[in-house]
Amino acid sequence: MQGVRIVCVSDLHGCLDYDSIACAAIRRKANILAIAGDIQNADMFRHPRSYFEADFLGMVSHLRDNGIEVVATPGNHDFYIRSLLEGGKIDGCPNILVDEGVTIHGVKFWCTPWVPTINGQWAYEDDDRNLAEKFAKIPDDIDVLISHTPPLGGSCDSYDVSLDFRVERRRHFGSDALRMAIMEKRPKALVCGHIHSGDHSLSKVADTAILNCSLLDERYSEAYKPSEIMVSKKGMKFRTNGSRKWQELQ
User: Domains, the chain, ranges and CATH?
Assistant: First the structure.
């Protein structure tokens, strides 16, 4: 396998200019753009059909014209995408996947959108005990797992719930079922989001690299930069949150 460069983002929420995301992927000479959910926002002010079909699928087409493939999973905000997937693959972006895998440029991906229950009113949420059945579908030989939720207990799944208060109150919001699945299945890397202001540095569960790739903070303002994975015969290396320095998992 020659080097395959994957640019990784999550939690776009319809707040970001897709042209800028496409330009970032092209500028970084990506082969693949990986998106870990919340492509749209649940309460978007624009009609979700026009937004998705004109803006998002337009970006996918532009990237494909530049030799870049898109692989994605939805998130808990992606009600419209969920409705489209009920009819099968989405024309114009067949690699938006739910509990399904695909191999692109020799890299094996598995995509899963599920998050632990928030309040019972969101897409792709379930009790974390039930998510173990969803994550049991993850194969043993995956290179990159794309999950909307992070695993429980690391630095990337916590944020300060006080927000505007002086006393910091950090809580963890990841999935314990996903953490257990990672320890069993051992994917080489996990691309996730959901917890916008969780730690964006490279972390790990067992020997799996964990990348929080959310681009927005908790107020839905752009706060972070895309991350990258380089896959080669020598293994994987990573650049997180727009860093210019490549890292290997220690």
Answer: 4-239 (3.60.21.10)
pLDDT in tens, 127-151: 999 999 999 999 999 999 999 999 9
Report the distance separating Cα 156 and Cα 191, nearest Å.
Answer: 11
Crossing angle of helices 18-27 and 57-65, in 10° steps, is 20
Q: Report residue 79 as tokens.
A: 């009600």
Q: Cα–chain-centroid distance for residue 190?
A: 8
Residue 72's SS3 state is strand
- Beta carbons within 8 Å of 200's beta carbon, 6+ residues apart: 156, 211, 212, 213, 214, 224, 227, 240, 241
Taking 90 as the threshold, does the pLDDT of residue 226 lie above it?
yes
Provide the 8-state DSSP code for 90: P
One DSSP character per residue, 101-135 reads: EEEETTEEEEEE--EE-SSS-STTEE-HHHHHHHH
Three-state DSSP state, 12: coil
Cβ atoms of residues 28 and 67 within 8 Å: no
Contact criterion met (CB below 8 Å) for 194 and 150: yes
Both tokens of residue 110?
Answer: 């598995």
Distance between CA atoms of residues 101 and 112, nearest Å: 9
Whether 192 contacts 36, CB under 8 Å = yes
Of residues 50 and 217, the one with the higher pLDDT is 217
| d(C-alpha 238, C-alpha 107), whole Å | 15
Using a 10 angstrom Cβ sphere, with 0-12 exposed, 13-18 middle and 19 or more buried, the burial of residue 145 is: buried
